[in-house]
Amino acid sequence: MGLNKIIGQKTLVSQLKKFLSDGKLGHAYAFSGPEGMGKRTVALEFAHDILCPFGKSDGCGCVSCRTFAEGTNPDFYEVITDKSSIGVDLIRALQEHVSNRPAYGYKKVYFIDGADMMTVQAQNCLLKTLEEPPEYAVIILSAVNYDALLPTIRSRTVNFRLEPYSEGEIRRIIMPLAPKNANELDFYINFSRGIPGKAVRMLEESSFRELRHLIIGLLQKPTDFSQTEKVRKILTDNKGDFPEAIGIIMSVYRDCLMVLTGMENRLINSDKKDIIKGIASACSKRKLMDRLSALENMQRNFRYNINYQLGIDILLLEIQEV
Ligand SMILES: [Zn+2]
């Protein structure tokens, strides 16, 4: 474990290492960015390196590093909840723990994953620790929506926004999980748009592959009633798949545009080239662009869409319109 193990985020990792090597570690850090960017991974590897009393990033067998890897290091404390918010009681429990000195090394790390889920009361409570932290305490936050935290918290925290990963970095991250079909791997890398967690989820969840298979089938035969109903059922049962479905359709339309403009070597769905060419042959550029902007609107408004069933109907119509 340790920061040396992190793939990508080079600037961030070298900055964190510098804090450690210069002995200039602050008391509060935050890692922010969209879901799937590896905020938790970076936070945990940073915590590992902070806690090792020998300043090693990997290959260290000290009791701190060993117990950290096992998840039993008493100097590491994570706020865990199964609720949709982090209440003040959890922060009070953290504060009780803060008052005890480190067991193994010189530091203790407190990690709040999803810190933007803290209630205002919880944040105000945490503020007391941020204002007067014991010299050994380091608090690490992760947040999708960092700006949702109180300004008083933010002003005492060094925030790092994670950068999108390069194609090569995502390839290295997902390689160990990947199927043998290299073409399909390229699709996951392209479709994830710099977010490794997205590529990993697509690889691990067969439901995503099923959805993609059905949607592409439907785009080939837009009037196929039984295929339409299968897609409708998946989306009705899994609301979380709706944005992915829009994303899949958009990727196909975008690829069709690429084919029509002679750039078929730059497809997202590179493993389905022949199918894409078939779909493109029945489309016009104008129509594809209209549909893409309609889908973009739909993606933006999805969160506010009260009538979900109507949303599904409109999406299925979009498929039939090209
Ligand atoms: Zn160690």
Tags for this model:
8% strand; 2 domains; 322 residues; 15 helices; Rossmann fold; alpha/beta; binds zinc ion; Zinc Finger, Delta Prime, domain 3
Can you lay out the helices and strands and say which pair or pack?
Blueprint: H1 10-21, E1 28-32, H2 39-51, H3 63-70, E2 76-79, H4 88-98, E3 108-112, H5 120-131, E4 137-143, H6 151-154, E5 158-161, H7 167-174, H8 182-192, H9 196-204, H10 206-220, H11 225-237, H12 242-260, H13 273-281, H14 285-301, H15 308-321
Parallel strand pairs: 1-4, 1-5, 2-3, 3-4
The protein binds zinc ion (ZN).
The site of zinc ion has 7 residues, from α3.
What does this structure look like?
- By secondary structure, this protein is of the alpha/beta class.
- It folds into two domains: 3-161, Rossmann fold, CATH 3.40.50; 205-321, Up-down Bundle (Zinc Finger, Delta Prime, domain 3), CATH 1.20.272.10.
- 54% of the residues lie in helices and 8% in strands.
- The chain has helices at 10-21, 39-51, 63-70, 88-98, 120-131, 151-154, 167-174, 182-192, 196-204, 206-220, 225-237, 242-260, 273-281, 285-301, 308-321; strands spanning 28-32, 76-79, 108-112, 137-143, 158-161.
- A five-stranded parallel beta sheet has the order 2-3-4-1-5, with helices on both faces.
- Helix 8 (182-192) crosses helix 9, helix 11 runs antiparallel to helix 15 (308-321) and helix 12 packs across helix 13 (273-281).
- Bound molecules: zinc ion.
- Residues 52, 54, 56, 60, 62, 64-65 line the site of zinc ion (ZN).
